[in-house]
């Protein structure tokens, strides 16, 4: 606001000075020329007045917005809606960085921290770990409540003990019988789940599962019996089994050639390569206590690739395996996000 006012004022002063100098530098002139000069000065004066009026209108509008934000913030403050009060006072400060706006903003921020810290303490006493965690998280950066981080961690650890689920990821079955897609999908899924760092999901790696179980029982066909699910769950101390099947993994390839003539009449062949990798994967989350299917979802993905080059040019064409990997990573990532969103994060 200050910079805008300064710029407008500077422009107006320059215009006034220019018109004044023009008028002072005009010597004795014929009456017609003098009249013309007078008219020019009059027009210039009108321009200055118009600009000044526009400036006053603009500053008046900004002042009104500033006053409205302050009034709105005060109302929110009285109603103990501190988050909205902070938002309103910040908006007012953007228009005019005044002492009043800053004082009100500080008051709102202080009351916000006091309120949520007290709420967190009450929830902690009630052993409502999730709500306590959420309240302390809102004031964790406050210098006024240095123990809020410790209290937040206490609530989080209690909540994690209460809600933590261990998931055993079993190697996916591959119905495509090519490229070892089942193993690849399993690896991508585990990697994505670990990268997302879910609060309440712990991934049990394949090599920690009981070796007494047969390969058929560990296959991700989705036909795991309730007995097998319970055996796996007990052996690996898991709550869920994550199984799956690569239903389809295909590569379509098309190559076309065209003979072109250069400017020197030399003929050269232009080659165009098009590929499409298509995958479909079924994911299932199974309750290890009774073998019930908790989540069943299939995802499809098509990854396209095309390249054109002349016959005498050296080119590196993307391999089928790499194209399939890209498609598999996408479907694994989609299921990992779905799983973590539903079961693994604090809202």
From TrEMBL:
Stored SUPFAM superfamilies: TPR-like
Gene3D superfamilies in alphabetical order: ABC-type transport auxiliary lipoprotein component
Entry GO terms, CC: outer membrane-bounded periplasmic space
Domain of life assignment: Bacteria
Pfam families the record matches: CsgG
The protein's name: Curli production assembly/transport component CsgG
Organism (species): Halanaerobacter jeridensis
């Amino acid at each position: 606001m200050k910079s805008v006012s300064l710029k407008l004022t500077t422009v107006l002063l320059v215009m006034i000075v220019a018109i004044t100098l023009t008028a002072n530098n005009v010597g004795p002139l014929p009456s017609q020329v003098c009249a013309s000069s007078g008219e020019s000065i009059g027009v210039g004066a009108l321009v200055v007045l118009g600009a000044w009026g526009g400036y006053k209108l603009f500053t008046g509008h900004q002042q009104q917005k500033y006053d409205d934000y302050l009034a709105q913030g005060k109302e929110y403050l009285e109603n103990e809606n501190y988050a909205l009060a902070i938002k309103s006072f910040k908006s007012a400060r953007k228009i005019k960085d005044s002492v009043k706006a800053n004082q009100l903003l500080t008051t709102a921020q202080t009351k916000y921290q006091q309120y949520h810290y007290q709420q967190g303490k009450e929830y902690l006493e009630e052993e409502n770990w999730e709500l306590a965690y959420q309240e302390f998280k809102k004031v964790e950066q406050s210098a006024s409540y240095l123990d809020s981080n410790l209290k937040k961690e206490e609530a989080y650890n209690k909540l994690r003990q209460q809600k933590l689920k261990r998931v055993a990821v079993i190697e996916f079955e591959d119905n495509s019988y090519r490229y070892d897609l089942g193993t690849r999908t399993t690896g991508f899924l585990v990697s994505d789940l670990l990268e997302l760092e879910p609060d309440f999901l712990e991934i049990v790696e394949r090599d920690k599962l009981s070796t007494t179980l047969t390969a058929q029982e560990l296959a991700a066909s989705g036909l795991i019996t309730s007995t097998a699910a319970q055996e796996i769950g007990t052996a690996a101390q898991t709550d869920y089994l994550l199984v799956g099947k690569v239903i389809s993994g295909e590569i379509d390839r098309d190559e076309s050639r065209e003979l072109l003539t250069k400017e020197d009449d030399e003929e050269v062949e232009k080659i165009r390569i098009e590929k499409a990798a298509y995958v479909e994967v079924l994911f299932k989350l199974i309750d290890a206590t009774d073998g019930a299917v908790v989540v069943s979802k299939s995802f499809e993905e098509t990854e396209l690739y095309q390249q054109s080059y002349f016959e005498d040019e050296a080119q590196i064409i993307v391999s089928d395996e790499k194209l399939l990997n890209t498609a598999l990573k996408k479907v694994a990532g989609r299921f990992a996000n779905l799983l973590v969103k539903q079961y693994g994060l604090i809202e």
